[in-house]
Amino acid sequence: VSTQSTGTGDSEVYVGTADFIGPPGSQDHVGFFSCSVFGSVAMATQHQADGDDYNSLLVKSLADRLVEALAEHLHSRIRREIWGYEDTPTGINPGNLLPGDLHSLKYQGTRPAPGYPSLPDHTLKDVLWDLLHVQENTGSVLTDSYAMEPPPSVCGMYIAHPDSFYFNLGQIATDQVEDYASRKGLGVSEVEDALETVLGYEPTTRLVT
Questions:
Q1: Percentage of the chain with pLDDT > 90?
Q2: Which of 28, 29, 74, 148 is the most buried (most CB within 10 A)?
Q3: CB 86 within 8 Å of CB 93
Q4: Alpha-carbon distance 91 to 163, whole Å?
């Protein structure tokens, strides 16, 4: 799905995540990842049972930072060592990036995740789970509501396109929802549930009393 309503005039670019992925046969890079930190939940729970709320919160916060750092580290290695477009004379960011550069996203490519403003459909995690065999390879699982277990977990895509950027999808209309449902082989009501946060209309099924 792509942006439909910007309110900034006809010159505004309407974009979707798929616009940053080349067609079959093109020279392009796209990857998927899933990262988790195991053991922190039990550790935090034990601290809380001992009445040590401070260290319980500290463990949870540290685990969240570690899993995000791992996703960033993997992205950096992919750009430099696997796809190899970053640390080269022709790369958009030749040389080594400093921590501040990483925080400011001064590198080529993006790392959108299901649930992001540009990629609001959490059910895409099912595709990622099947593609990477996440549960078999890591032990991380998806709940019925598409939350990742253990909680300090992240997943998403690595996109290499030099013009890719993070954006807010905004509200979408019924035409996109119906087309998306057709391509996914799902009912419109199922897709409306998955895209509830970006619907620009009230679903008919919810108007029936």
A1: 62
A2: 148
A3: yes
A4: 13
